[in-house]
Amino acid sequence: MAQFFKAKPSRSKQLSSKLSLEVTQLDHLGAGIAHHDGKIVFINGALPGETVSVQLTEQKKKFARAKLLKIQKISAERVEAPCPHFAQCGGCDLQHLNLDAQRAHKANTLVDLVAKFAQTQASEICQPLSDNPWHYRRRARLATWYDKSTKHISLGFRASSSSKVVEIQSCAVLAEPLSALIPELAFMLNQLSGKKALGHVELTQADNGNFVVLRVTKILSDKDKARLAEFAAKHQVIVLLQDDDGQCEHVNGAGELPYYRFDDSQVKLDFSPGNFIQVNGKVNQAMVNQAVEWLAPQAGERVLDLFCGIGNFSLPLAVNGAEVIGVEGVPAMVEQARLNAKQSGFDNVSFYHADLSADLSKEPWLGKVDKMLIDPARAGAYESMQSLKKLKPKALVYVSCNPASLARDSEVILKQGYKLKKIGLIDMFPQTHHLESMALFELKN
Q1: In which band, very low, low, confident or very high, does the pLDDT at 8 lie, cut at 50, 70 and 90?
Q2: Domains 13-73 and 139-250 share a fold
Q3: What is its EC number (predicted)?
Q4: pLDDT in tens, 151-183
Q5: pTM for the predicted model, two decimal places
Q6: Is 401 designated active site?
Q7: Domain 139-250 annotated CATH 2.40.50.1070
Q8: Where are the domains of the chain?
Q9: Are 372 and 348 contacting, i.e. CB atoms less than 8 angstroms apart?
């Protein structure tokens, strides 16, 4: 008798019957945590103290994920999300939790993760750095989607864990002038004959005006460029077209780049589309001020700034005369940092390009330093921290956008003779689970 293979249904993706679960806490990604049959269950949208009706959507050996169906008992910390796009947009995933509770959750998560993985506690837990919880973003990248059947281009943000574009009319965390621009920008883009060639759209509020960068895969017609120039004049924005190679053509603005300044400082930082900048200008100012205060660099000292970007920390660290060495993995940002140092009048800052995940032992800038700052991406700075034994800075400030990698790297730092002196939350991204932080390590005597 012939036998035919019949695939068994995947247990990891089987839907369960409805369950009623008690949510006890949030994880560091903002999901509610409950327990069922000895497993941790992660539930997006659920809050501690709530009883919820859910359906398991994914089951693994030690954990499961569930879809929130109904809230049977509501947390006192739950609020109604003010953004009309909250249920669809994949961005601000903690709008349903009141602001004080958001900040308390993030601060506790930071301390708990470091205590768990690095087996240490800071001598001082600092007050969070924070500012306006709404309309704080000075930069955002919007996605576009062209519908072939309707010939309509949608402008918005990606849905959570999806490539689908949620068309939006406003954004509650984007700077108000940029948010107000979205509907008319979307209308104008739909008037372009070359709209199929549009990719993402980057909106930026800089100290010298508002910028709109359109990613294009083909050269736009002169007629389309004229429409863009008319839009730019009407809304007093600078429009740039960015091609596949990252090169930009100014529709208007005579080649002007966006920039930001620090309060009461000679520091002026130009940046190009694609350069990383902190999107929360007010909190970035407070963060840099705190880093400078903690390290207190002085003339005659040598300060190393790893993952330096365009010089966001490097130049403020050099104000009092310390020699500052900035190192970055993106060549274009190294070049921009050098230009920023020159135009701000610093001759005590030098910038180098290096792969900071590789062996650094032969790099020309590597040597004895007095103080050090690192501001890595989400992956952290595990490889770079292996050089601490040679560098031996007496103080190290670690700025982190991922508490898990900070906790892992803290263990490496402590093993090399350091103690955790201070740690604190930086509320760079209110209404989201994203957690920025700063830690100060000091070399033991």
Answers
A1: very low
A2: yes
A3: 2.1.1.190
A4: 999 999 998 878 899 999 999 999 999 999 999
A5: 0.92
A6: yes
A7: yes
A8: 13-73, 101-133+280-443, 139-250
A9: no
Q: Which residues are annotated as a binding site for S-adenosyl-L-methionine?
A: 278, 307, 312, 328, 355, 375
SS3 178: helix
Task: Supply the pLDDT for residue 10.
Answer: 47
Q: Which CATH number fits domain 101-133+280-443: 3.10.450.330, 3.40.50.1370, 3.40.50.150, 3.10.450.50?
A: 3.40.50.150
Which residue ranges make up the annotated binding site?
Answer: 83, 89, 92, 171, 278, 307, 312, 328, 355, 375
List the binding residues for [4Fe-4S] cluster.
83, 89, 92, 171
Task: Please write the tens of the pLDDT for every residue from 385-403.
Answer: 988 888 999 999 999 999 9
CA contacts within 13 A on the Cβ side of 391: 31
- When pLDDT is cut at 50, 70 and 90, the band that residue 16 belongs to is low
Of 126, 248, 308, 401, which one is the catalytic site residue? 401
Instruction: Please list the residues that pair with 373 across neighbouring strands.
Output: 305, 397
Long-range contacts, stretch 4-11, CB < 8 angstroms, 24+ apart: 11/59
Complete DSSP assignment for 256-321: PPPEEE-TTSS-EEE--TT----SBHHHHHHHHHHHHHHH---TT-EEEEES-TTTTTHHHHTTTS
Q: Residues 31-54: what's their mean pLDDT?
A: 96
